[in-house]
Protein backbone atom coordinates (compact mmCIF):
# COMPACT_ATOMS: atom_id res chain seq x y z
CA UNK A 1 0.00 0.00 0.00
CA UNK A 2 1.26 3.49 -0.82
CA UNK A 3 0.18 7.02 0.03
CA UNK A 4 0.70 9.96 -2.36
CA UNK A 5 2.50 13.09 -1.24
CA UNK A 6 3.64 16.40 -2.62
CA UNK A 7 6.85 18.04 -1.49
CA UNK A 8 6.85 21.80 -0.86
CA UNK A 9 9.33 24.14 0.76
CA UNK A 10 9.29 27.69 2.07
CA UNK A 11 12.80 29.21 2.01
CA UNK A 12 14.26 25.73 2.41
CA UNK A 13 11.93 24.62 5.23
CA UNK A 14 10.56 21.50 3.50
CA UNK A 15 7.51 19.35 4.05
CA UNK A 16 5.72 16.33 2.63
CA UNK A 17 2.04 17.15 2.17
CA UNK A 18 -0.43 14.28 2.47
CA UNK A 19 -4.21 14.74 2.16
CA UNK A 20 -5.75 14.10 5.57
CA UNK A 21 -8.22 11.60 4.14
CA UNK A 22 -5.39 9.25 3.19
CA UNK A 23 -5.32 6.52 5.82
CA UNK A 24 -2.12 6.45 7.85
CA UNK A 25 -2.67 4.61 11.11
CA UNK A 26 0.58 5.75 12.73
CA UNK A 27 1.49 9.21 11.49
CA UNK A 28 4.36 9.54 13.94
CA UNK A 29 6.10 6.41 12.69
CA UNK A 30 5.72 7.51 9.08
CA UNK A 31 7.25 10.90 9.88
CA UNK A 32 10.18 9.35 11.72
CA UNK A 33 10.92 7.14 8.73
CA UNK A 34 10.25 9.42 5.76
CA UNK A 35 11.62 12.68 7.18
CA UNK A 36 15.02 11.01 7.60
CA UNK A 37 17.31 12.55 4.98
CA UNK A 38 19.34 9.40 4.49
CA UNK A 39 16.79 6.61 4.72
CA UNK A 40 13.57 8.40 3.71
CA UNK A 41 12.41 11.15 1.38
CA UNK A 42 13.84 13.79 3.69
CA UNK A 43 11.83 16.67 5.17
CA UNK A 44 11.36 18.88 8.21
CA UNK A 45 7.92 17.38 8.77
CA UNK A 46 4.75 15.96 7.24
CA UNK A 47 1.71 18.19 6.80
CA UNK A 48 -1.68 16.45 6.81
CA UNK A 49 -4.14 18.82 5.15
CA UNK A 50 -7.93 18.74 4.89
CA UNK A 51 -9.37 21.21 2.37
CA UNK A 52 -12.85 22.60 2.97
CA UNK A 53 -13.89 24.43 -0.19
CA UNK A 54 -17.44 25.26 0.94
CA UNK A 55 -16.13 28.22 2.92
CA UNK A 56 -15.22 31.60 1.45
CA UNK A 57 -12.29 31.95 1.59
CA UNK A 58 -11.54 28.19 1.55
CA UNK A 59 -10.29 26.63 4.80
CA UNK A 60 -7.49 24.15 5.36
CA UNK A 61 -7.15 22.10 8.54
CA UNK A 62 -3.42 21.58 9.10
CA UNK A 63 -1.70 19.00 11.28
CA UNK A 64 2.10 18.97 11.38
CA UNK A 65 3.91 15.81 12.44
CA UNK A 66 7.61 16.43 13.00
CA UNK A 67 10.55 14.09 12.39
CA UNK A 68 10.53 12.94 16.02
CA UNK A 69 6.96 11.72 15.57
CA UNK A 70 5.38 14.44 17.70
CA UNK A 71 2.73 16.93 16.60
CA UNK A 72 3.61 20.63 16.59
CA UNK A 73 0.86 23.22 17.14
CA UNK A 74 2.18 25.70 14.58
CA UNK A 75 4.79 26.23 11.86
CA UNK A 76 5.00 29.48 9.93
CA UNK A 77 6.65 28.14 6.79
CA UNK A 78 4.54 24.98 6.98
CA UNK A 79 1.37 27.07 7.09
CA UNK A 80 2.60 29.06 4.09
CA UNK A 81 3.18 25.79 2.21
CA UNK A 82 -0.30 24.62 3.19
CA UNK A 83 -1.73 27.89 1.87
CA UNK A 84 0.04 27.54 -1.49
CA UNK A 85 -1.15 23.92 -1.77
CA UNK A 86 -4.75 25.00 -1.12
CA UNK A 87 -4.58 28.00 -3.46
CA UNK A 88 -3.40 25.81 -6.32
CA UNK A 89 -6.42 23.55 -5.82
CA UNK A 90 -9.05 26.25 -5.45
CA UNK A 91 -7.76 29.13 -7.55
CA UNK A 92 -8.22 31.39 -4.52
CA UNK A 93 -5.71 34.03 -3.51
CA UNK A 94 -6.76 33.87 0.15
CA UNK A 95 -7.32 30.90 2.45
CA UNK A 96 -7.83 30.28 6.15
CA UNK A 97 -5.50 27.82 7.88
CA UNK A 98 -6.80 26.03 10.98
CA UNK A 99 -3.86 25.08 13.23
CA UNK A 100 -3.65 23.91 16.81
CA UNK A 101 -2.40 27.42 17.67
CA UNK A 102 -5.44 29.11 16.09
CA UNK A 103 -6.95 30.04 12.75
CA UNK A 104 -4.74 32.13 10.46
CA UNK A 105 -5.41 33.98 7.22
CA UNK A 106 -3.02 33.56 4.28
CA UNK A 107 -2.89 35.70 1.13
CA UNK A 108 -0.92 35.65 -2.10
CA UNK A 109 1.01 38.91 -2.41
CA UNK A 110 3.11 39.57 -5.52
CA UNK A 111 3.78 35.85 -5.91
CA UNK A 112 4.77 35.30 -2.28
CA UNK A 113 2.59 33.89 0.49
CA UNK A 114 1.77 36.08 3.49
CA UNK A 115 0.28 34.50 6.59
CA UNK A 116 -0.95 36.02 9.82
CA UNK A 117 1.00 34.60 12.74
CA UNK A 118 -1.24 35.65 15.62
CA UNK A 119 -0.16 37.85 18.49
CA UNK A 120 3.27 36.95 19.91
CA UNK A 121 3.52 36.87 23.67
CA UNK A 122 6.26 37.15 26.30
CA UNK A 123 3.93 35.89 29.06
CA UNK A 124 5.93 33.20 30.87
CA UNK A 125 2.86 30.98 31.33
CA UNK A 126 2.06 31.14 27.62
CA UNK A 127 5.65 30.57 26.41
CA UNK A 128 5.91 28.45 28.67
CA UNK A 129 8.97 29.18 30.80
CA UNK A 130 9.45 28.71 34.53
CA UNK A 131 9.68 32.35 35.55
CA UNK A 132 7.57 34.87 37.44
CA UNK A 133 8.21 37.64 34.91
CA UNK A 134 8.88 37.74 31.17
CA UNK A 135 12.42 36.64 30.34
CA UNK A 136 14.49 39.29 28.53
CA UNK A 137 18.18 38.77 27.76
CA UNK A 138 18.77 36.23 30.51
CA UNK A 139 22.03 34.33 30.19
CA UNK A 140 21.41 30.66 29.53
CA UNK A 141 24.22 28.39 28.37
CA UNK A 142 26.29 31.37 27.27
CA UNK A 143 23.58 33.12 25.23
CA UNK A 144 21.51 36.13 26.33
CA UNK A 145 18.07 34.67 25.71
CA UNK A 146 14.67 36.32 25.40
CA UNK A 147 11.68 33.99 25.56
CA UNK A 148 8.69 34.51 23.27
CA UNK A 149 5.84 32.38 21.96
CA UNK A 150 5.05 32.95 18.27
CA UNK A 151 2.77 29.94 18.01
CA UNK A 152 5.53 27.78 19.52
CA UNK A 153 8.16 28.74 22.11
CA UNK A 154 11.42 30.35 21.01
CA UNK A 155 14.56 31.27 22.91
CA UNK A 156 15.90 34.20 20.85
CA UNK A 157 19.45 35.50 21.25
CA UNK A 158 21.27 38.26 19.37
CA UNK A 159 24.95 37.67 18.61
CA UNK A 160 27.61 39.51 16.64
CA UNK A 161 27.67 36.96 13.82
CA UNK A 162 25.45 33.89 13.55
CA UNK A 163 28.13 32.09 11.55
CA UNK A 164 30.50 32.21 14.52
CA UNK A 165 28.13 30.14 16.70
CA UNK A 166 28.31 26.34 16.90
CA UNK A 167 24.53 26.05 17.05
CA UNK A 168 24.49 22.25 17.15
CA UNK A 169 26.55 22.43 20.35
CA UNK A 170 24.96 25.46 22.00
CA UNK A 171 21.28 24.84 21.27
CA UNK A 172 20.49 21.40 22.76
CA UNK A 173 21.20 22.35 26.41
CA UNK A 174 18.83 25.30 26.00
CA UNK A 175 16.24 23.33 24.02
CA UNK A 176 16.05 20.75 26.86
CA UNK A 177 16.68 23.21 29.72
CA UNK A 178 14.82 22.77 32.99
CA UNK A 179 13.45 26.30 32.54
CA UNK A 180 11.29 25.13 29.64
CA UNK A 181 8.61 22.56 30.61
CA UNK A 182 7.62 22.00 26.97
CA UNK A 183 11.10 22.47 25.55
CA UNK A 184 11.91 25.34 23.22
CA UNK A 185 13.19 26.21 19.78
CA UNK A 186 16.49 28.09 19.80
CA UNK A 187 16.98 30.98 17.38
CA UNK A 188 20.00 33.24 17.01
CA UNK A 189 20.21 36.46 15.00
CA UNK A 190 22.81 39.02 14.01
CA UNK A 191 22.56 42.36 12.14
CA UNK A 192 22.88 41.91 8.38
CA UNK A 193 24.36 45.38 7.81
CA UNK A 194 21.25 46.65 6.01
CA UNK A 195 18.81 47.01 8.89
CA UNK A 196 17.66 43.40 8.88
CA UNK A 197 18.88 40.24 10.56
CA UNK A 198 20.57 36.98 9.65
CA UNK A 199 18.94 33.95 11.26
CA UNK A 200 19.76 30.44 12.32
CA UNK A 201 17.32 28.18 14.17
CA UNK A 202 17.53 24.84 15.95
CA UNK A 203 14.04 23.39 15.83
CA UNK A 204 12.33 21.41 18.54
CA UNK A 205 10.95 18.19 17.03
CA UNK A 206 13.42 18.27 14.17
CA UNK A 207 16.25 18.22 16.75
CA UNK A 208 18.60 19.92 14.34
CA UNK A 209 19.23 23.20 12.59
CA UNK A 210 16.87 23.87 9.66
CA UNK A 211 17.34 26.02 6.58
CA UNK A 212 14.52 28.28 7.69
CA UNK A 213 12.06 28.73 10.56
CA UNK A 214 9.08 31.04 10.13
CA UNK A 215 8.09 31.22 13.79
CA UNK A 216 11.75 31.91 14.56
CA UNK A 217 11.86 34.77 12.04
CA UNK A 218 8.81 36.29 13.71
CA UNK A 219 10.49 35.80 17.08
CA UNK A 220 13.54 37.73 15.89
CA UNK A 221 11.41 40.64 14.63
CA UNK A 222 9.27 40.80 17.77
CA UNK A 223 12.20 40.62 20.16
CA UNK A 224 14.28 43.09 18.12
CA UNK A 225 11.47 45.63 18.25
CA UNK A 226 10.89 45.06 21.97
CA UNK A 227 14.59 45.50 22.77
CA UNK A 228 14.93 48.59 20.59
CA UNK A 229 17.17 46.95 18.01
CA UNK A 230 14.89 47.99 15.15
CA UNK A 231 11.80 50.04 14.45
CA UNK A 232 11.51 48.82 10.86
CA UNK A 233 8.29 47.46 9.39
CA UNK A 234 8.71 45.13 7.63
CA UNK A 235 11.69 43.53 9.33
CA UNK A 236 13.86 41.63 6.85
CA UNK A 237 15.08 38.27 8.14
CA UNK A 238 17.57 36.07 6.29
CA UNK A 239 17.65 32.38 7.25
CA UNK A 240 20.09 30.18 5.31
CA UNK A 241 17.30 29.18 2.89
CA UNK A 242 16.27 32.63 1.68
CA UNK A 243 14.55 35.88 2.61
CA UNK A 244 11.51 36.42 4.85
CA UNK A 245 9.68 39.61 5.81
CA UNK A 246 7.87 40.15 9.10
CA UNK A 247 5.29 42.91 9.41
CA UNK A 248 2.75 43.96 12.01
CA UNK A 249 -0.84 44.66 10.96
CA UNK A 250 -3.53 46.95 12.38
CA UNK A 251 -4.71 44.23 14.77
CA UNK A 252 -1.26 43.92 16.32
CA UNK A 253 -0.67 40.53 14.71
CA UNK A 254 2.62 39.61 13.09
CA UNK A 255 2.58 38.55 9.45
CA UNK A 256 5.18 36.42 7.68
CA UNK A 257 5.87 36.77 3.95
CA UNK A 258 8.11 34.75 1.68
CA UNK A 259 8.23 32.41 -1.32
CA UNK A 260 6.88 28.87 -1.50
CA UNK A 261 7.91 26.28 -4.07
CA UNK A 262 6.43 22.93 -5.11
CA UNK A 263 9.37 20.53 -5.52
CA UNK A 264 7.96 17.20 -6.68
CA UNK A 265 5.30 14.51 -6.18
CA UNK A 266 5.77 10.96 -5.03
CA UNK A 267 4.47 8.06 -2.99
CA UNK A 268 5.53 6.55 0.32
CA UNK A 269 4.95 2.95 1.29
CA UNK A 270 2.71 2.07 4.19
CA UNK A 271 4.23 -1.04 5.67
CA UNK A 272 2.67 -3.61 7.99
CA UNK A 273 -0.07 -2.46 10.42
CA UNK A 274 2.23 -3.27 13.34
CA UNK A 275 4.82 -0.82 12.01
CA UNK A 276 2.48 1.92 10.85
From TrEMBL:
Which GO molecular function annotations are given, in alphabetical order?
Answer: diaminopimelate epimerase activity
Instruction: List, alphabetically, the GO terms of the cellular component aspect.
Output: cytosol
UniProt: substrate binding residues = 13, 66, 76-77, 185, 203-204, 214-215
- List the residue(s) that the UniProt entry marks as the site Could be important to modulate the pK values of the two catalytic cysteine residues: 154, 203
Residues of the active site:
75, 213
Q: Tell me the leader sequence span.
A: none
Which Pfam families does its entry note?
DAP_epimerase
SUPFAM superfamilies named in the record: Diaminopimelate epimerase-like
Please list the GO biological process terms of this entry. lysine biosynthetic process via diaminopimelate
Q: What is its main location?
A: cytoplasm
| UniProt-listed Enzyme Commission number(s) | 5.1.1.7
Stretches of the chain forming a coiled coil according to its record:
none
Q: Where in the cell is it found?
A: Cytoplasm
Main function: Catalyzes the stereoinversion of LL-2,6-diaminopimelate (L,L-DAP) to meso-diaminopimelate (meso-DAP), a precursor of L-lysine.
Family under the similarity heading = Belongs to the diaminopimelate epimerase family.
Q: How does it assemble?
A: Homodimer.
**Protein known as:** Diaminopimelate epimerase
Species, as recorded? Natronorubrum daqingense
Gene name tied to this protein: dapF
